[in-house]
Amino acid sequence: MNSMLEVFTRARKTEIAEKILESEMRKGFQPSAQNFNVLIYGRAASRTPAKAELLFEQMAAAGVEPDAVTYSAMIKAMVKSDRLSRALYWLVAMTSAGFTPNEYTYGLLIKGFIAANQMDDASRLYHIARANRAFPTDISFE
After folding, report:
1. What's the pTM value of the predicted model, to 2 decimals?
2. What is the pLDDT of residues 33-85, one digit of tens each?
3. In the chain, what is the greatest distance between 2 CA atoms, to the nearest angstrom?
4. Are 116 and 84 in contact (CB under 8 A)?
5. Is the terminal CB of the chain with fewer CB neighbours within 10 Å at N or C?
6. How far apart are CA 113 and CA 106, in angstroms?
7. Element (H, E) at 96
């Protein structure tokens, strides 16, 4: 199932992928976090954060537990849409759910704050990441 969903999301046809998953669920298919993660990343790529949040709600309604990747996907969806305060909301939600952000997650946030020219916030996040033993790479503070 994930391969098919990925084909559509990579082609920027996330709506079709969502309809496929919905159709399969109506037939009794039990989705996984990975299925929803693919769709949420698709929404990040298409810069439709409200739809990413709707997918998160649908995931809960389907009884599927989000994982660390789900939260990172939500953060990416917010960062890609310049909704940095909402990205921080999802960071807090991630840690509240018992997941530890990794280098990738902190890197997404730091890059978002750099792009928004919010260097103090980017620096603060970098120091928080290091304190949590996450060492973001591929980040430029220039």
Report:
1. 0.92
2. 999 999 999 999 999 999 999 999 999 999 999 999 999 999 999 999 999 99
3. 52
4. yes
5. C
6. 11
7. helix 84-96
Taken in order 9, 76, 99, 139, the sign of the CA dihedral is positive
Whole-number Cα distances in Å, 30 to 26, 64, 68 = 9, 9, 20
Per-residue pLDDT of 90-106, as tens digits, reads 999 999 999 999 999 99
Q: Which of 139, 81, 82 is nearest to 105 (CA)?
A: 139
Specify the 3-state DSSP secondary structure of 124: helix
Angle at 56 between CA 54 and CA 8, to 5 degrees: 80
CA–CA dist 14, 17 (Å, integer): 5
- Give the separation between CA 35 and CA 52, rounded to whole angstroms: 13
Could you tell me if 78 and 87 are in contact, meaning their C-beta atoms sit under 8 angstroms apart? yes
* The amino acid at 46: S
Q: Taking the alpha carbons of 93, 41, 62, 64 in that order, is the dihedral positive or negative?
A: negative
